[in-house]
C-alpha cells in the first residue's frame, strides 16, 4: 500500500488563481516546541475557485514579498504540496515554493 506522505502534487492540483492575502514568518521547531529561530517566510493565499480555501506556502528565508502583491493573483515557481499525518489524527498539507511573483495574464 502506498503511504500518502510519499505523494507530491504540483500547482495543477489547485484550480484557478491564488490570491495573496498576507505574509508572515515561520519558526523552527525542536522536539515539537517552537523555537525563536525564523526558518521560513510564509505566503497566505486564497483559492476563489475552490471556495476561498486558504493555503500557506513556505518560502526560503530571505524571500522578499512585494506588499503591492497583496490582493492580487500570484504564482509560485517550483510549487509542491505534500500530505502529512497529524499526531491527533487527520491529515495536513505542507506547501513549499522557491519564490513568489505576480501571475501572468
Write up this protein.
The chain is mainly beta. 0% of the residues lie in helices and 50% in strands. It has no helices and eight strands. The strands form two sheets. Strands 1-6-7-4-3-2 form a six-stranded mixed beta sheet, with no helix packed on it. A hairpin with a 5-residue loop joins strand 3 and strand 4. The chain is globular, with a radius of gyration of 14 Å.
Primary descriptors:
mainly beta; 50% strand; 8 strands; 105 residues
Order of helices and strands: EEEEEEEE
Spans of at least 5 consecutive residues whose pLDDT stays below 50 are none
Terminal CA distance: 41 Å
DSSP summary, beta strand count = 8
Strand order of the largest sheet: 1-6-7-4-3-2
User: Which structural class do you get from the secondary structure elements?
Assistant: mainly beta
Give the averaged pLDDT, no decimals: 89
Main sheet makeup = 6 strands, mixed
**Continuous helix count:** 0
The proportion of strand residues reads over 45%
Q: What's the topology here?
A:
Layout (H helix, E strand, L loop, with lengths): L7 E2 L9 E12 L2 E15 L5 E7 L14 E2 L4 E6 L5 E6 L4 E2 L3
Parallel strand pairs: 4-7
Antiparallel strand pairs: 1-6, 2-3, 3-4, 5-8, 6-7
Brief summary:
With 105 residues, the chain is mainly beta.
Amino acid at each position: 500500500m502506498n503511504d500518502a506522505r510519499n505523494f507530491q502534487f504540483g500547482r495543477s492540483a489547485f484550480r484557478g488563481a491564488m490570491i495573496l492575502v498576507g505574509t508572515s514568518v515561520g519558526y523552527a521547531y525542536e522536539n515539537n516546541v517552537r523555537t525563536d529561530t525564523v526558518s521560513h517566510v510564509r505566503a497566505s493565499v486564497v483559492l476563489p475557485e475552490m471556495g476561498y480555501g486558504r493555503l500557506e506556502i513556505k518560502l526560503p528565508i530571505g524571500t522578499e514579498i512585494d506588499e503591492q502583491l497583496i490582493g492580487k493573483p500570484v504564482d509560485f515557481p517550483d510549487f509542491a504540496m505534500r500530505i502529512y499525518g497529524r499526531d491527533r489524527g487527520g491529515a495536513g498539507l505542507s506547501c513549499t515554493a522557491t519564490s513568489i511573483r505576480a501571475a501572468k495574464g
